[in-house]
Amino acid sequence: MIVIGGGAIGLELGQLFTRFGVRVILLEGAPQIAPGEDPEIGAALARYLKEEKMQVHTGAHLIRVERGQDGYHVDAEAAGASRTFAAEQLLVTTGRRPTTEGYGLEEAGVHLGRRGEVLVNEYLQTSHPDIYAAGDVIGDPMFVYVAAYAGGLAAENALTGIGRVYDLSTLPRVIFTDPQIASVGLTESQAREKGLSIRTTTLELKNVPRAIAARNTRGLIKLVAEEGTGKLLGAHVLAAEAGEVIQEATLAIRFGLTTQDLIDTFHPYLTMAEGLKLAALTFDRDVKKLSCCAT
Question: Residue 42 is part of a domain; what is its CATH number?
Answer without folding.
Answer: 3.50.50.60
